[in-house]
Amino acid sequence: MSKKAKLILFTAMMVVITIVLKDPGTPRSTFTGEAQIGGAFTLTNQHGQPFTSEMLKGRYSLIFLGYSNCPDICPATLMVLSDTLKKLGADADKVNTAFISVDSVNDTPQKLAEYIASFDSRIIALSGNEEQVKAIIAAYKGYAKRPEDAAPGNTLISHSGYIYLMDRDGKYIRHFENDVKSDTLVQALKEVF
Question: Greater confidence, 114 or 6?
Fold first, then answer.
């Protein structure tokens, strides 16, 4: 391509770019700086009572999605959350901690009540029907996959294992991998208090 052809092509591209940028009808992406993680929900707590996301507002929240038959990630993460609440001392009153089940088939309120009793009593266990659980997983940008040939009651579910830190209005602040240490969570909470 000759120099003249390159100059003409460059000029034409600049004219198109100028027109696009000046055209108010051109769609634009807007970045607000807020991750779209979380949102409104209605579930059932371990006592069989309705529980909404509105009930978490006013305090920071640590939210973890898992299930009671999980053999490793969930109990280990719930122990870290329990230890975090213990280390926070009186500041633990500034935090909601919720364990939301991704197993709508097996995790009844009664089963969750029995399961969550092994951890800090301030952790709220929540469950829902299949539609509610799918909505929660999508809202938190997580995943959960039950094997199609799995037998009810003894199911391993492949699932994400993040702990989400939400602000007092239920908005996402950050998340942590499931291997996070309680000291890291304590430090992150003290930074936002």
Answer: 114
